[in-house]
Amino acid sequence: MTEPAAESASKKTMLKGMNHYELKSWFREQGEAAFRGDQVFNWMYNHRVLEFDQMVNLPKSLRHTLEETAQMQTLTEHHSIISPESATKKFLFKTNEGNIIESVIIPEEKRVTLCVSTQVGCPLDCKFCATGLMGYKKNLTAGEIFDQYLLAQKGYDREISNIVYMGMGEPLLNYKNTIKSLEIFGSELTTGISLRKITVSTSGIPAKIRELADTGMKVKLAFSLHSCFEGMRSKIMPINDKYSLHENLDALDYYAEKTNTRITYEYVMLKGINDRKEDLHALIKLSKKIPSKVNLIPFNSLAHMSPEGLSAELEPTSDKDIQIFAEKLRDNYITVMLRNTQGKDIAAACGQLAVKF
Ligand code: SF4
User: Fold this and answer.
1) Where are the domains of the chain?
2) Do residues 148 and 75 lie in contact, with contact meaning Cβ atoms separated by under 8 Å?
3) 96, CA 20 to 30 Å: which among 130, 150, 236, 310?
């Protein structure tokens, strides 16, 4: 079923964000042949053009009509900054209504990863996260999620190879648009980035984790674990009061089995909170329950947000203690990755995204 097309303030129909089926239906409704939807899909998402006039296999009259009645740009680049240390690049994009969101390109030797946002701000208030301190403004459309990729790619000289839905917001609280953007990425006509190179990160909405598994898209799933104890997890991630770790583990088990993928447990290392002996033992036990790996993340300062309460008290586990923690996990045959803090110098590292420079 075709959803009503998004209307912009100028009453032009927003085409960016429509999936293949929706575009074909829209052209049919306009009295045009459905294959025009294929062509525009290809131009918009694959060739990444920003003007209808560049769609040279459309008749001139149709290009003119599209200029009058439709639009396809959801974001403009507001500002960008590149780290002299690591070539990590942070973009601030402005939505058509004037909201600012952030995306970050993280280059490594063999791959270039783009971290995209799915919401303006975030309602979940995780205590270690700058975005949570901003509060929540709105869900991004599928077009706004996808345009972060198009604009970031235009502004970077290496090809983006991987995408992580780990920027501002909780993707599974914006489920419909997250799925639509994944459908666009996953289309054969689109970017050449296969769904296997896309990771969706969630703080844990069990029903949506199961729904995502049932789509058959087989994207990788990262789960923000951060503590294996319900009480402590609730303290640092209040969403745990609503959706417990226990319920989430059931849903993650379902996801891993249904998609035949390994879950990544994200674990921000916080001194005295989740780096104690009992935390290590609980993490070892938990990691053996479901096919998984653990991503240890150094805690990045929130000082640029002037936090209060628990957020102000959080301290990072030292690099040395993180190494020891990782070694002990490995001794127990657990796959461990240590995330570097690339982008810290430009407030673009994990948990620091909050529209500030
Ligand atoms: S960690 Fe993710 S879910 Fe939690 S507040 Fe930050 S953006 Fe939201």
Assistant:
1) 12-71, 75-346
2) yes
3) 130
- What DSSP string describes 5-54? PEE-TT--EE-TT--HHHHHHHHHHTTS-THHHHHHHIIIIIS--S-GGG
140-158, pLDDT tens digit by residue?
A: 999 999 999 999 999 999 9
Class of domain 75-346: alpha beta
Sheet of 70-71: strand order equals 6-7, 13-14, 70-71
Q: Is there an atom of ligand 1 within 6 Å of 126 CB?
A: yes
Global pTM reads 0.91
pLDDT tens digits for 158-214? 999 999 999 999 999 999 999 999 999 988 766 678 899 999 999 999 999 999 999
Name the token pair of 50. 């920003």
Is-catalytic flag, 350? yes
Q: Ligand 1: which of 101, 122, 137, 299 to mutate, judged by most atoms within 8 Å of the beta carbon? A: 122
Instruction: In whole angstroms, give the CA distance from residue 235 to residue 230.
Output: 9
